[in-house]
Design brief:
The chain has about 800 residues and is of the alpha/beta class. The chain has five domains: about 1-180, tt1808, chain A (Alpha-Beta Complex), CATH 3.90.1570; about 205-215 and about 490-595, no CATH class; about 255-355 and about 420-485, Rossmann fold, CATH 3.40.50; about 355-415, no CATH class; about 620-795, no CATH class. It contains 36 helices and 16 strands. It has a seven-stranded mixed beta sheet with strand order 1-2-3-5-6-7-4, sandwiched between helices. It has a six-stranded parallel beta sheet with strand order 8-13-9-12-11-10, sandwiched between helices. Strand 5 and strand 6 form a beta hairpin. The longest helix is centred in the last third of the chain and has 22 residues, at about 750-770.
């Protein structure tokens, strides 16, 4: 600012007679180089475009602004308007001053041909900054920052620096501020025109029957103790998650839990190809610490432990397996400790016929203590008063037993050391409980492991482990860590469907359907068509593998809901399969159920798998593509990432700022994308670890997930997705908004086609006019790859008109 003040004081009176070249040399060059800090290498002068237009200055590499200069004599006779911090209406300025109108109209084509969004015009003493490329209205109808003389340039230098310094230009500060200022009022979503936007769609009798049996065969069957062994024998998948359908790189999958390990080392993957090998290798190393088993929610920790139990029984007759499930039990007990003290004896008695309170067992456990009793004073009663002796001995023994925690330790010690039993204790689903309960569970596991009488496993999510390791109970211990990687989801689904079909046809686990009187023919027919579709259609397998994000529980729930879904034409599927056979359910049937669940229309509650990536929170249509751009950038070969594939939040902010987005927009989308599993932080902040509003999302690191990649590369261009999101997205163009509002509540396929097509064309037009200078995302290409959806509906409906109006 001091330099600019000195320059302004040096100006001779004759400066108003300088020609344009002299004006640029004497003032504008010095303003850019000496005052705003530009280097020559980042400036381009006299740049010619393909139409023959010649721009005086191009600012930035890549170019971010065009500056057009005129001689000082071309003064702008502009009405006073206060501080430059109060933007002025361009239209009123051009109407009041022809010189200003001429230079504004001259620079706009220079920006347009180069795809540069910001224009700067100046006659030396006066300078204006405005948005030269806009969506839906002429740039001359917008606003500008006007510095109306040297006094304004000096007095409002901080604003000038923010807008036109190399940093300001690189981060598109001028474009951000002008975009926010010119944005219209945020319109309502079309869902507001639906009378019952959260309306459920109810099942008919056939769908209800399919839903009931499907739930039994696909979910509840694994909890049936009479069928558990058959189920895990046929359905357990122990492969690591590196199958060909995942959109993530193998390195990212392999490093999934790396940052949760000790000193950033990778936890050893736990695939359990041989449970006996696992236990035999662990037994000699039993120490004073439990084994922490890390795995994301739904990845299969519980399934692994169930399989561990079955194989433990098969491989060793001397093995004892005790599972403490804190997800389904212990909710009514006063504490986890009291539940564990009662649950372990119950499992030993029910499953192994070992009653630790039985008199003979107690006598064996406390043989040493009873011998010591005989040598004490009360032992003298044995010869003097045998009856009194027995009473005292019983009281002594009872006191030992009633100390429940020490009696449990003594009993386990006797089983392990005295009887040679190999005891395995699993504390599962602690991460489904409150944080204090998780801490209590780990301390109990630590106490039991410290006896060196048993192998103790504690299952935790990486986010839970991180929180406890840094601030909770785990911070005091060095932990043994194992990890469970998500299995290939498509293989899990195929095995589950195969087993369910075999049960429905009476070929496996007959106990599963004991007492069921429903006709299973329809169920078997539906399962057969569904199984064939998943096995034969790579698009379906890719969808299931990626949209679940490694959460096997979520995808099984989705497939279970698909059986009998009110949004799936189950009757048609069964009829075609029965009549012709070899029917293959198309992908859109699966995606429609994944989007709507049991609701009639899409809403944020209708789907556990889908996120509306086009939703916006400011009236800036370019924001429709902010989330896709973030995910694409994170998965590109651009920028700098760490060894685990994470980008620093500040680097993401800088990249998206260069594309014209404000910090507030970027921060909001980062938060929403992390909550929806579209992207992830190293420890699942926002999704599993809450983040207060005062913490900047830019302080975290992020990488894309398979969920996000499937959304932006495949799902977002499909008819079901665009149809669903059209009513959940604010549309800023009036005609497209009117059409979507008019058809929002209709279920007719022709209306849904018109609505989705209008939304599709609105987004495509916005993408084209936004002209993002990136090579890592191509929305037009995504639409073209999914155009077969729309073409199929056109043929089905007798070729509706191509235009969406």
């Amino acid at each position: 600012m001091r330099q600019l003040k000195e320059i302004s004081e040096e100006f001779p009176e004759s400066s108003k007679h300088w020609n344009e070249a002299q004006n640029r040399f004497q003032l504008i060059d010095r303003l850019l180089l000496e005052c705003l800090g530009w280097d020559h290498i980042y400036l381009e002068v006299e740049s010619t475009d393909e139409s023959g237009g010649r721009a005086d200055y191009i600012l930035g590499k890549p170019p971010r602004a065009v500056l057009e200069a005129k001689r000082e004599a071309k003064i702008w006779n502009i009405p006073p308007g206060g501080s430059p911090n109060r933007p002025r209406d361009i239209k009123s300025l051009t109407e009041s001053c022809q010189n200003f109108a001429d230079i504004v109209r001259q620079v706009i084509p220079y920006c347009s041909f180069r795809g540069i969004p910001v224009a700067v015009v100046s006659n030396g003493r006066q300078l204006a900054v405005f948005q030269a490329i806009t969506v839906g209205e002429p740039p001359t109808h917008g606003l500008c920052f006007l510095f109306n003389g040297l006094k304004d340039l000096v007095g409002s230098f901080p604003l000038l620096w923010e807008l036109l310094s190399p940093e300001g230009i690189s981060e598109n500060r001028a474009f951000q501020r002008l975009s926010q200022l010119r944005s219209p009022r945020m319109p309502a979503k079309a869902s507001s025109a639906i009378p019952e936007p959260f309306k459920h769609r109810y099942r008919d009798d056939m769908q209800e029957s399919l839903q009931l049996i499907g739930s039994l065969l696909l979910e509840e069957i694994e909890d049936n103790p009479r069928t558990k062994e058959d189920f895990y024998s046929e359905c357990y998948v122990s492969l690591e998650a590196n199958n060909r359908h995942l959109l993530l790189s193998k390195n990212i999958i392999e490093r999934r839990y790396k940052r949760s390990g000790e000193e950033a080392s990778s936890p050893a993957p736990l695939t359990a190809p041989s449970v006996s090998d696992l236990l035999e290798s662990a037994a000699p190393r039993i120490g004073s610490r439990p084994i922490v088993v890390l795995g994301d929610v739904g990845v299969g920790k519980s399934s692994f432990f169930e399989n561990l139990e079955i194989n433990t029984a098969k491989t060793s007759s001397s093995s004892i397996y005790i599972k403490i499930d804190l997800g389904r039990k212990a909710n009514l007990t006063e504490s986890v400790k009291s539940f564990v003290l009662s649950e372990i004896p119950r499992v030993l008695a029910d499953n192994y016929g070992c009653d630790i309170f039985e008199r003979g067992f107690v006598r064996n456990v406390y043989q040493r203590q009873l011998s010591e009793f005989d040598r004490r004073t009360a032992g003298a009663l044995k010869e003097i008063d045998p009856k009194a002796y027995e009473i005292e001995k019983i009281k002594f023994t009872q006191d030992l037993v009633e100390a429940r925690d020490s009696h449990l330790h003594a009993s386990l010690s006797f089983l392990s050391g005295g009887q040679g039993k190999q005891i395995t204790l699993v504390i599962d689903n602690a991460d489904q409980r409150s944080y204090p309960v998780q801490q209590e569970a780990f301390l109990i596991a630590q106490e039991l492991a410290a006896t060196r009488n048993l192998i103790v496993f504690v299952a935790l999510r990486p986010s839970t482990f991180l929180t406890s390791k840094t601030t909770g109970a785990l911070s005091a211990y060095q932990n043994k860590i194992l990890s469970i990687s998500p299995p290939p989801i498509d293989e899990v689904v195929v095995k589950r469907l195969t087993f369910a079909l075999r049960v429905a046809e009476g070929k496996a686990a007959p106990a599963a359907l004991e007492g069921i009187r429903l006709n299973l023919k329809n169920v078997a027919t539906f399962l057969k068509a569904t199984l064939r579709s998943v096995k034969s259609n790579d698009d379906i397998r890719q969808f299931l593998s990626n949209i679940s994000g490694g959460n096997t529980r979520a995808v099984i729930e989705m497939i279970t809901g698909f059986c009998g879904s009110s949004n799936v034409d189950c009757r048609k599927i069964i009829q075609i399969e029965e009549k012709f056979g070899n029917y293959k359910v198309p992908l859109h049937e699966f995606t429609k159920h994944a989007l709507l669940g049991e609701y009639s229309y899409y809403n944020p509650r209708s789907s556990q798998l889908a996120t509306n990536i086009f939703d916006i929170h400011t009236a800036d249509s370019r924001e429709h593509f902010l989330m896709p751009l973030i995910v694409s950038f994170l998965s590109s070969n651009q920028g700098v990432r760490d060894n685990d594939g994470f980008f620093f939040g500040e680097d993401i902010r800088a990249e998206l700022s260069r594309n014209g987005f404000a910090d507030e927009q970027i921060a909001e989308v980062l938060r929403r994308a992390a909550e929806g599993r579209i992207i992830e932080t190293p420890h699942s902040h926002f999704r599993e670890i809450p983040v207060s509003e005062g913490v900047s999302p830019f302080s975290f690191s992020y990488r894309s997930t398979s969920v996000g990649l499937y959304h932006i590369r495949h799902w977002c261009g499909s008819f079901p997705y665009l149809d669903a999101m059209s009513t959940d997205t604010p549309i800023l163009e009036a005609e497209a908004r009117r059409l979507v509002f008019d058809l929002a509540s209709s279920f007719y396929i022709n209306d849904r086609f018109r609505k989705a097509n209008a939304f599709k064309h609105y987004l495509l037009e916005t993408w084209n006019t936004s002209a993002f200078p990136v090579n890592y995302y191509d929305f037009r290409g995504v639409l073209e790859a999914n155009n077969k959806d729309f073409l199929a509906i056109e043929r089905l409906q007798g070729k509706p008109k191509a235009g969406w109006r």
